[in-house]
Amino acid sequence: MKSGLKIGIVVIVIVVLLGIMIGSNYNSLVSKEEKVDSAFADISVQLERRADLIPNLVSTVKGYTSHENEVIEKITTAREKLLGAKTVDDMSSANDELTSALNNLFVIVENYPDLKSSENFINLQDELAGTENRIAVSRKDYNDAVNSYNTAIKKFPTNILAGMFGFDKKEYFETSEGKDEVPEVSF
Questions:
Q1: Which domain holds residue 54?
Q2: Quick check: pTM over 0.85?
Q3: pLDDT per residue over 171-185, tens digit each?
């Protein structure tokens, strides 16, 4: 009877330790997934802030440039896509499109010295530059959170738990190729 009691206690201890390990790993995955979701929300907030600045910038530019409608339309279309994006890929793609359109706008602005010296335009441009920095920081924080999460769901034995409980790989927020190039200004 004593050996049966010892075996029962050992089995109970093993089950309890296994339960603690599983619970700990599960909670860690939940925390990492929440961090990814929170970081994605931060990116969304910054991209919306950027999108909210665009109409004011466009209005200011329209006041000085009457024949640059194509660039204005591209910015407006890209802004709408960004505001309508729900997934990381859609948001990243729309962000790239808006960045490209804004780069084209700033190239055109070089042809309008009055616009470049407008206090309203300068303030909007500074706000936009600050927002761009916030977006870069938010994107880095998001990608760091995704890296930590994706690494955790691939490591043994957590990968088994991740598969059992449906923790799927998260996508990085990436920019497309060539976005680090400076637009060419020609007169």
A1: 32-165
A2: no
A3: 999 876 544 444 443
